[in-house]
Specification:
By secondary structure, the chain is an alpha+beta fold. The chain has 13 helices and six strands. A hairpin with a 2-residue loop joins strand 5 and strand 6. The protein is globular.
């Protein structure tokens, strides 16, 4: 089977992910024990002096996390604007501010694996664009706010209201946590943080090229454009760029552009090559590629054994992404062409339309509608052929 190498890569990625989880657990246990002892010490020393002190500290930790997340993304935005980038969108959890047609508007959407995201548009001339201030802006702001929160505790601890003390402690805790987790260069498997990109991108012209074009594509999607309406050169990957999560994302975008243009065979060839050669890609990236290959197999060769094999491997991923247009489109296609379960299909179509109304990206919704409608034309052709 042409997807066998891709499926082997997926299994390998899953094994690597399990190893990382075990390693993180081994590291996390002593850290958790140390944190528990520190909290117990703090509880005996400080919290028991105040009624409900432990509860207030817990509430303030919950309250200050989104504040530091907002400040982190604001740091990216501020340093990006200072170095020539333009604002595109700003999101914390599922709440977003977007710029469309020169106006700011509100929207709601999620990006799996992220708590927040600030998207900016790079200026023209990739060689002269600075990346380090943009990437480390969030770390800098988290560090500064943690320091500014520590100073009042140091200088005026006894005169501060207990609730304000707990607020400052929360700001310090999350400020330091976000600064360290994003600032110290590291890769969790194939996923790199801000510090790692800040270290690598200034030295790697090809990686910078891919990074800037991803920002431009994301900005155009936010503005409501379809992938087929964007310049083809935005999707070109440098020949000397190895297959990594950064370049793989751009290649997947190119394949999705081909699908948007109706060039399914070209898209399938790209995605097969990417999945077969992506030995070092993370599990979530391989599964997203295989999902599109499942769709292309269903509307293309229609091989039931291949469809069932792919669908079996992707069952868990489709469940956890069930509230995405892509997952709903794939499930709709399967029931339209392979099970004939019209009751199930009707429920999926209603969920698809309900979700489509809430997504603020008109171009993405239009592309998904087009791809979701294509299986119906195949079904009608089959029906007409059978008389």
């Amino acid at each position: 089977m042409e997807f066998q190498k891709a499926l082997d890569n997926l299994q390998n990625a899953k094994r690597k992910q399990k190893k990382r989880q075990k390693r993180n657990m081994l590291i996390g246990v002593p850290i958790g024990v140390a944190l528990g002892l520190a909290i117990s010490f703090f509880d005996n020393l400080v919290l028991k002096k105040y009624e409900g002190g432990t509860l207030w500290l817990f509430l303030m930790l919950l309250f200050t996390l989104p504040i530091q997340l907002i400040l982190h993304e604001m740091g990216h935005l501020i340093f990006g604007l200072f170095t020539g980038y333009r604002f595109c969108s700003f999101r914390v959890f599922s709440f977003a501010i977007l710029k469309k047609d020169g106006k700011l508007c509100f929207g709601r959407y999620r990006v799996p694996g992220t708590l927040g995201q600030c998207l900016v548009i790079p200026p023209i001339g990739d060689a002269a664009i600075k990346t380090t201030p943009l990437l480390l802006g969030g770390v800098i702001v988290n560090s500064v706010t943690a320091l500014l929160s520590f100073l009042p505790l140091l200088l005026f601890f006894n005169s501060l209201a207990p609730i304000f003390r707990f607020f400052l402690i929360g700001m310090i805790f999350w400020g330091v946590a976000l600064a360290l987790s994003n600032g110290i260069p590291q890769k969790n498997g194939a996923i790199a943080n801000d510090g790692y990109h800040a270290k690598v991108l200034p030295k790697d012209k090809a990686a910078r090229h891919v990074f800037f074009h991803q920002l431009r594509i994301s900005a155009a999607v936010t503005e409501g454009k379809r992938l087929c309406e964007m310049p083809s050169e935005w999707f070109a990957t440098p020949k000397d760029q190895p297959i990594d999560p950064l370049s793989a994302t751009l290649t997947r975008m190119l394949a999705e552009r081909e699908m948007d243009l109706g060039k399914f065979d070209a898209a399938k060839e790209m995605l097969v090559d990417l999945a077969n050669c992506g030995e070092d890609l993370p599990e979530f990236q391989l599964t997203s590629v295989l999902c599109e290959l499942l769709y292309l197999e269903m509307v293309g060769s229609h091989r039931l054994d291949v469809v069932e094999t792919l669908r079996c491997e992707l069952t868990h991923y489709l469940k956890i992404t069930h509230n995405s247009l892509t997952a709903l489109r794939i499930e709709m296609t399967y029931h339209y062409l392979f099970t004939g379960d019209m009751e199930k299909l009707d429920k999926l179509q209603k969920r698809f339309e309900s979700l489509a109304k809430r997504i603020p990206f008109a171009g993405e919704v239009a592309r998904e509608r087009l791809l979701a409608a294509y299986p119906e034309s195949i079904y009608r052709a089959w029906r007409d052929a059978c008389g």
